[in-house]
């Protein structure tokens, strides 16, 4: 049933020729700092690459034919000193010519349409195995919320999924929702673009075949900070993913050494927007902070998750991410230090 999920990525004749003539066009396997659709690490992305190569073959052939004919006409019928400048014979109402420039483009469009439709349906109709991981993705202005309903986990901005393989297939099926405006989920090496539309759930699935960090981007303009609504997908080995799940299922750390910071967090407006499991903070407007320090970045991937950045983010979010919807609370330096110290214990 899952055999078609793990077909080896196909390389078209044109692509093979290009790679042979120019090895620099070859793309390394695995995660890339600048992700490309030509370096797929998941079955849906591999299918999209195959379709891209097919389209390149068709359009490349058209380019060669048209360019060759144009070059022939330019050379063959160029101006010569012996020309008498008479107008050449004109052809009107040629049925053959009119049929050719009508039928051939229509056939090309039909072929491209049918091939694209077949690929789309093949990806969308893939069966969901019992070993699949279910994740609900909610797009917010301007961050991502990840809910793992079967695991009881709520995370933000950094999606963790298990590594899949032909011997042990563990695809991840995602239900895509929006809490406000249209967003678009796109991790080029793992899948195509799928929109998140209010009141209209969409779905996608991935089966990453190589571990590592895969980067993506919200591909639908959703407001001022659209460009900084970044995607980070961590593909973990089974052991690493199990350890991550175990940690995420724990309640927030209650360290007596930062009790004052926790009280400040709960008495300010922080708890109205953010949740920390095991405490009175149950806000849902902002990201869940129960395991904030287990994340590599804050502000939806905009800056590294360091103590200085965290403090500055609490003090004045617009200084790191202009246009973000998190307000500056105008806290004192003492309150900033207390809250930062408390949040740093949430691992």
CATH class of the largest domain equals: Mainly Alpha
CATH fold name of the largest domain, please?
Helix Hairpins
User: Distance N terminus to C terminus?
Assistant: 40 Å
Radius of gyration: 27 Å
Number of domains: 3
Strands, total number: 12
Shape: elongated
Count of helices?
8
How does the major sheet shape up?
5 strands, mixed
Residue runs with pLDDT of under 50 for 5 or more positions: 1-11, 20-26
Order of helices and strands: HHHEEEEEEEEEEHHHEEHH
Query: Please, what is the average pLDDT?
Result: 89
What level of helicity do the residues show? 25-40%
CATH architecture of the largest domain: Orthogonal Bundle
Structural class: alpha+beta
Q: Per DSSP, what share of the residues sits in E-state strands of 2 or more residues?
A: 15-25%
Order of strands across the widest beta sheet?
3-2-1-5-8
Characterize the structure shown:
By secondary structure, the protein is of the alpha+beta class. The chain has 3 domains: 111 residues, Helix Hairpins; 104 residues, Cupredoxins -  blue copper proteins (Immunoglobulin-like); 88 residues, Cupredoxins -  blue copper proteins (Immunoglobulin-like, Sandwich), CATH 2.60.40. It contains 8 helices and 12 strands. The protein is elongated and about 100 Å long. The chain starts with 12 loop residues before the first helix and ends with a helix. The N terminus is likely disordered.
